[in-house]
Design a protein that fits this description.
Order of helices and strands: HHHHHHHHEHHHEEHHHHE
Radius of gyration: 37 Å
Distance between the termini: 118 Å
Structural class: mainly alpha
Helix content: 40-55%
Shape: flat
Largest sheet: 2 strands, parallel
Strand content: under 5%
Strand order of the largest sheet: 1-2
Amino acid sequence: MIGLQLFYLLSDFNILETKNPEKEQWLALQSEIDQEKLTDKNAKPTNYLFNPNFISDYKGYKLGMSIEEIDRLMAFRKENKYVNSAEEFQKVTGVSDSLLHKISPLFKFPDWKQNKSNDSADKKDFAVKSFPKKEKLEILDINQATKEDLMKIYGIGEGLSTRILSQKEILGSFVSMEQMKDIWGLSPEVINELNSHFKVVVPLNMKKINVNEASIKELAQFTYFKYGLAKQIVTYRSMNGNFNNIEDLIKIKDFPVEKAKIISLYLEF
């Protein structure tokens, strides 16, 4: 017993801690990260400029606006109107002078609105520079239009003009200006311009598809028919006889009814 007690008293039970380079490196890195977080916390938030015409409910709430003030702005915008200055913003929303003084430095209005107060001479120069008039066009047949003719339209460059001409080649010819809506990349505004300067004259010798004699392959090559629909047309024809008009074709499942009028101009029965 005495020997065990002496062993316990004289022995060193402390565990020697071995140095681990990887652990020390990790602790140093963690210390740097903690320091960065502390720096970010103390940093002031960055304020970005914004157009007050497009304030959302949440944005208005964060700015300190009341629900009534936000609703007044929303109602004003629903009338397709815009505020052009901080003073007009206050007049529409009814925000207090103190809140306006706080948030108005963050307002950013488009340049064309800021220039609204310029004199008439400046307005004239601005209009000429920003919206140059293109030469007046006579109404042409879209099926006879060249790339140069199409590129005279606002919003149509080389890419879109090539796409229009390619679609015409695929179809053989256009039969309606409504087909411009099927061409990818043409905005409603550009389509309106096309309708103002072009019309469709269907060629007398335009080749049509005989829907009662065409094979599945021939029908599937038609832009408005997919292979599945072409197969259904031939199956329906073999079981029920020839088609007499477009109304007979509409009875087939998955037929694009909304384009029936245009499709009928490419078919013969």
